[in-house]
Amino acid sequence: MLARMVSKSQIDRLGNRLRRGSISDHDLRILDEYRRSFSEAYEFTVRAIRNELGLEPTGRPAKSTTSISEKLRRESIRLSQLQDVAGCRLVVPEIPDQENVVDSLIRIFESTIFVDRRSQPSHGYRAVHVITSQGNKLVEIQVRTSLQHAWAELSEKLSDIADPAIK
User: Fold this and answer.
1) Quick one: which of 50, 140, 150, 155 could link to 87 by a disulfide (CB 3.0–4.6 Å)?
2) Tens of pLDDT along 5-55?
3) SS3 for 148?
4) Residue 84: is it exposed, middle or buried by C-beta count within 10 angstroms (0-12/13-18/19+)?
5) Dihedral sign for Cα atoms in the order 35, 40, 41, 43
6) What is the pTM of this model?
7) Sheet containing 137-145: which strands, arranged edge to edge?
8) Are strands 112-116 and 86-92 parallel, antiparallel or unpaired?
């Protein structure tokens, strides 16, 4: 797999080209392989959630090229630092359920980063992100209440219409 042979600095330079919008067909092939290199970590994470928690996550094994490019333009982050190239989501009824699921995720995954976006929401977006590392690949698990999910979906649609900077 080509992405395994590409260094972190090469991935970050690719990210810089994506940010500028100056990418070649070769760059797109490298990015596609890089994105696909997260599949195994994603599948492991989803399987663990299903088996250990009995929950059914929704999500995607790899963020789209367009989404990656837009995020790189919006934020000052390197491509190798993106925590959500692969990710899934769990929607639960209420905040106590959210707390329980987050606690369980932290217990079942050896290596996690906990980001509570409820305490400092961005444009009203609230959720808890648990980022796990599987084989040096990060997988983001968003845990939202039903109300947080409705707001996120609405603001996502609004950003598509009005201004992507809303994200």
Assistant:
1) 140
2) 778 899 999 999 998 888 899 999 999 999 999 999 999 999 999 999 999
3) helix
4) buried
5) positive
6) 0.85
7) 58-60, 86-92, 137-145, 128-134, 112-116
8) unpaired
